[in-house]
Amino acid sequence: MNRLNALHAVRGSCRALMVPVLLLWAVAGLGQTPNRAAVASANPLASEAGIEVLEQGGNAFDAAIAVSAALGVVEPYGSGLGGGGFFLLHRASDGLEVFVDGRETAPGAAFADMYLDEAGDPVPGASRNGPLAAGIPGLPAALVHLAENYGRLPLADSLAPAIRYAEEGFPAYEELVRRLSRQARSLSEGARAVFAPGGEVPAAGELLRQPDLAATMRTLAREGRDGFYRGAVADTLVDGVQGGGGIWSAEDLLNYRVVEREPLTGRYHDVDITTAPPPSAGGVALINMFNMLSGYDLASADRVTRVHLLTEIMRRAFRDRGPYLGDPDFIDVPLDRLTHPYYAAGQRASLRIDRATPSDSLPGVQPAGSFGGPQTSHFSVLDRDGNMVAATQTINFGFGSGFMAPGTGVLLNNEMDDFSMKPGQPNGYQLLSAEANSIQPGKRMLSSMTPTILRTEDGVALLGSPGGSQIITIVFLASLAWVEGADAATMASNPRFHHQYFPDRLMFEPDAISAEEEEALRGLGHNLARSRQLRGNGNLQIVTWDRRSGEVDAASDPRVVGEPRFSSP
Description:
Layout: H1 3-16, H2 18-27, E1 38-41, H3 44-55, H4 60-74, E2 84-90, E3 97-102, H5 139-149, H6 155-168, E4 170-171, H7 174-183, H8 189-195, E5 207-208, H9 211-223, H10 226-229, H11 231-243, H12 250-255, E6 259-261, E7 264-268, E8 271-275, H13 282-293, H14 303-319, H15 321-324, H16 335-338, H17 341-348, E9 376-382, E10 388-394, E11 452-455, E12 459-463, H18 471-483, H19 488-493, E13 497-498, E14 506-508, H20 515-523, E15 528-530, H21 532-537, E16 541-546, E17 552-556, E18 563-566
Helix pairs in contact: 3-4, 3-6, 4-5, 4-6, 6-9, 13-14, 13-17, 13-18, 14-20
């Protein structure tokens, strides 16, 4: 056995020890429990739904169901039953950590070239608009899975707040009104009837009701998995999709399965990182970036050098997305190699402190030829027992495919755009991928969603964000801020910058880089783009717990409309 293989074997043994280590962490040491429960989500009504379920005797996993379902009602542009999500769980009683994969899958009739014309070029809009763009939803199955395997309460109790919001209505808010004003015309007739009845977008404060969605959730609550994936709801979904030109079948819904996966783990200084494995590209990149960063003394770097180093690290982590990453049930993902410190050391060998590395000089998938916005949602939950959930869910672009199967109230995702249409063809987020992420029946498309738990001997942080390709760097920068001592509010509000290999461009919020720093970075060879759009793309939702004092804090990104909620002490 050569040295690298031997190290991989040792690393595998360390993974086998992870559960006992987590158990010791959970039951020994400081002995403090959280002084209160907390929920941070992208909408105050969703956060309140989580607290309501906790106060009824539910745990963090029941609360996660409540928050997830509520977000699908009150934030319909970001997620919902027609999409999917990732749930990173920590169970306090035994230290179990598990990644619940509720990502969408390709329909059985899908094939690699389905969005290409006769010339082999992508058909504009085919992978983004209408039911042909929709993968088989995983979120309903994930909610049932959480209730049956981790929760304390019946599924119906956890879904009750969301059903109430859908049935009785909730006040339309400015962000929702703004998005509907821009996108209502592109929605299907059934969706327009819900969100812009009579062709009129609701005014801020006007009640928005979704009775069909309430009925679908009641069926899910009553019948569990069968309430969505077989029976009347399933038949209505399939009929609507096929009638609109899609390719779903009844078998696609029956065959959908949630997958439990081992989370990815890494370490930076004294911080243990637990994060998303494939089919997320986020966790691999996050651990790789921290591994690369461990070779530098960031604390002694000036601001320009710091931004330069972090940018070059981002560039290299995103380079690996195209050639290596996809659904691990379909391809062999070289996780041990990509997350190994030796691999990061090799990447550092090409990194110059005094010069930017042009992306086209690094080996990887090259482009064949706009960044997306925050059409995803993240929430974090901590209960009084120390159970934790970091969850990110999505329907991809705003309002997903725009298609609502008549009679269901369910907006369908357009996650098929996250597959590789053909090698080197950027998706809607300008991300490159290749054969590893090609379309195959039943396959999960690659994602950037990066729910993450950070842990030291003294404390914990749960975090994640929407933002398309920018999710990964948003989580990276916020995690780094926590390592350096930032509180939840600072983590959420810090200005951001982003690089993703291609386009070879350093994007930054207007207040993230000064004019003098911008000039210096250009002198190092960076292509910079000041972007107000970047400001609106992230929506961090963070819960922190100081294990020495027991104090719990939480923060929602001030750029958007979310608000945390806390239980009574």
